[in-house]
Design brief:
GO terms for molecular function: alkylated DNA binding; DNA-3-methyladenine glycosylase activity; DNA-7-methylguanine glycosylase activity. This protein is α+β, with helices and mostly antiparallel strands. The chain is 40% helix and 10% strand. It is built from 16 helices and six strands.
Length: 313
């Protein structure tokens, strides 16, 4: 990887030694189509991300050249930190070579998607904040709250005007989150339980970053020490922050039934999900990712879960 910098911009090039699906490895970091921290432009030729880092905010644009080289351009005080982690972000720390498929759906997805890797974003705060917003609500509700909080309490992204896509925002920092008035949480549609969990995380955000160093079950245990962060939330963070191949989102509304129908042809509860994924340990989450990426969709019966609008309560 080569690195160059001037007073305003940092650039690096990295050529992976493996097949890379650039969009696929980054997609779990995107929080819906209107995510203000993410933009895809020029028909997918460039992916833009805005993040917080230990050094400050960063804006990064990622482009893949025809020879497979990834060109990353960054702005802001955290740009060098972010670009130093480019290989990890794009799955260089992941090792899928020992994974063995035990079901046809998984085997077929593994064969068709050699570029699927589990990336490591390395920054806990940027993932635990939206993960808590997604607790026990629909995706529509959670993404709306995330958009509104970023737009009102996030900062403008570093980078030159006219180059950085319009409408992007840096996620609110822990300090900024702690200063959000109660009525603003309500306005953003965030109930008391999720607000309280986010505030607990904001108070100890600097300590939670150690989870990315511990990794694995130790990292997830550290996250679960925070009131309001359970197995599901810790797994959602672990999957994105250190590419945890075994962190399954138990307690999810959709995953047990999706996995159950894909592998067995019927719904499962969490206990059943634990049993059916047992042969895949310690790479159970990789199996789930293959199923999700395979295009399989479980049959739908009855009405969808209706969103709740906490702003009117």
């Amino acid at each position: 990887m080569t690195l160059a910098a001037d007073a305003r911009m940092v650039e690096c090039e990295w050529r992976p030694a493996f097949t890379l699906d650039l969009y696929g490895v980054l997609a779990p970091l995107r929080r819906g189509r209107g995510d203000p921290t993410w933009r895809t432009v020029a028909d997918g030729a460039a992916i833009w991300r805005v993040t917080t880092t230990p050094e400050g905010p960063a804006t990064v644009a990622l482009r893949r050249r025809p020879d497979g080289t990834v060109l990353a351009t960054g702005w802001g005080p955290g740009a060098t930190w972010e670009l130093d982690g480019l290989p990890s972000l794009l799955g260089a720390d992941d090792d899928p070579s020992s994974f063995v498929a035990h079901h046809p759906v998984v085997s077929d997805a593994q064969r068709r998607m050699p570029g699927m890797r589990l990336g490591s974003a390395r920054r806990v705060w940027d993932q635990v904040f939206p993960a808590i917003l997604e607790q026990k609500v629909t995706g529509v509700e959670a993404r709306r709250s995330f958009r509104e909080l970023c737009r009102r309490f996030g900062a403008p992204p570093p980078g030159p005007e006219g180059v950085v896509p319009p409408g992007m925002r840096v996620p609110p920092t822990p300090a900024r989150v702690r200063a959000i008035p109660d009525w603003e949480w309500h306005r953003a549609g965030v109930d008391h339980a999720r607000r309280r969990a986010i505030l607990h995380c904001a108070v100890v955000a600097h300590r939670l970053e150690r989870a990315a160093e511990l990794r694995g079950e130790q990292g997830r245990v550290l996250l679960r020490r925070v009131p309001g962060v359970g197995v599901w939330t810790a797994a959602e963070v672990a999957q994105r922050v250190w590419g945890d191949p075994d962190a399954v989102s138990f307690g999810d509304f959709h995953i047990p039934s999706t996995v159950g129908h894909a592998l067995l042809g019927h719904d499962l509860d969490d206990a059943g999900l634990l049993d059916v994924l047992a042969p895949y340990a310690p790479q159970r989450q990789r199996a789930v990712r293959y199923i999700e990426a395979s295009g399989f969709r479980r049959p739908r019966f009855g009405p969808r879960f209706s969103p709740r609008d906490y702003r009117s309560m």
